[in-house]
């Protein structure tokens, strides 16, 4: 099992059980490609369990103070 696969398993288990996981960046520096690979593998595991993607969450940053 590769480090990417193991990390995806950890992320998926955290989502499945609704529990916090430690930030990977505290123990290893990830490249952007590695982070996206972890996300993709984690999502594959969720889809394999029958979960469906029904939308995306879009969060806007707060407006600058000078806009109020």
UniProtKB/TrEMBL annotation:
Gene3D superfamilies under this entry?
Answer: Fumarylacetoacetase-like, C-terminal domain
> Which superkingdom is the protein from?
Bacteria
**One GO molecular-function entry:** catalytic activity
Q: Which InterPro entries match?
A: Fumarylacetoacetase_C_sf
The protein here is known as Uncharacterized protein
Organism equals Donghicola tyrosinivorans
What does the organism's lineage look like at the top? Answer: Bacteria, Pseudomonadati, Pseudomonadota, Alphaproteobacteria, Rhodobacterales
């Amino acid at each position: 099992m590769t480090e990417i696969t193991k990390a995806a398993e950890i992320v998926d288990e955290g989502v499945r059980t609704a529990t916090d996981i430690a930030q990977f960046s505290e123990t290893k520096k990830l490249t952007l490609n590695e982070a996206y690979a972890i996300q993709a593998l984690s999502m594959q595991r969720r889809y394999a369990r029958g979960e469906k993607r029904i939308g995306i969450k879009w969060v806007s940053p707060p407006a600058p103070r000078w806009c109020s």
